[in-house]
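Example record

One chain of 378 residues, shown exactly as stored in the release files.
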Amino acid sequence: MLNGKKIVAFICECNPFHEGHKRLINSAFKEGDIVIAIMSGNFVQRGEPAIYDKYKRCSELLKNGVSMVIELPIEYSLSSAKYFASYSIAILNKLKFVDKLIFGSKINNIDKLSEFAYINIYLNENNDIKKYLKEGYSYSYAISRIYGKKLSPNDILAVEYISALKQTKSKIIPICIKRNNDLPTASELRKKIIPAIKNDDFSSILNFKLLLAKNKICNFSNTYLMTDDLYNSILKSSNKNLSFTKRAKLLQTKNITLANIKRVLLNIILGINKNNIGMNLNTAINPKIKIDYIRILGLKKDFTCYLKQIKVPYLLSYNNNAYKAFVKNFPKSNAIKLNKNGEYKFSPSIMINIFASDLYNLFSKSKNTEATTKSLIL
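Predicted structure tokens for this chain:
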């Protein structure tokens, strides 16, 4: 709550923004006074570049009533549902003023989703999921077998949101609304849009990196989400000059989804490894998450008065003025520090996210590159 106003949050990709998002925002306003969002940046959970850049998608949210949009760092937007949800909830918990979390659900039964969440927590504690994955089942199919009900991707995310809230003993109240199956899905809308950038634009970079690994000039075995089996398969394929898409399909097996392979390949390109992300991946239950900062992509002018009440170190943009303000206001943060020469030293997460934006903009056919250095204030 901020100044007596109830805050409702939702987590999204907006890839692209559609009527379902409008419906979610309208429902959020029935639950509270101010709506904020956490949104994936230029790369999304499918293991692909977003259909539009993050500023265009952020502006759609702001124009439709959202007061503040926080960027989900790329290392988590390019992740499985568990870590995507866990980090998003960690951000909301860190803000300490969010009252409710709203999300769409096909099941649309918060008690049933909570029941699945308890099962999910138990399964992770006992590694039951891994047993099914080793038998060749996909993650979604494995948990559907265990739950005794086939879950949609949105319901799987809903279960992970609730699980993360329960594991962190969060005071945030989860609320679900019925997904309208009559509305076009994001997947259907993407088929009608010519994207500015595709995975295959990165084929040359990926092939070059694999060639370096093959010749033992570099090693990417510690890449985030990499497994030993996948690492060996990627090395075996390194002598083939393939497009990103063809290589991903070549590497696909029964126990690893195409989306996860694409995430790993993008993590190789972006240099995202297990040591430079703020999460202890060895903790199966309640992952230990360290948040050094949050990145505010955009906000409404009338929300700027609340910025002083955000105690989490935050960046409004990636430029010298923003860095100076960050160091001045949050001197104890590990995200940005000054060295002895007065130069800025950035956390691995900031460096990764800057590089990801630069790479996206380099290949993007969009002419609007100005927004890459500053947040949107509408």
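Notes: The longest strand covers residues 34-40.
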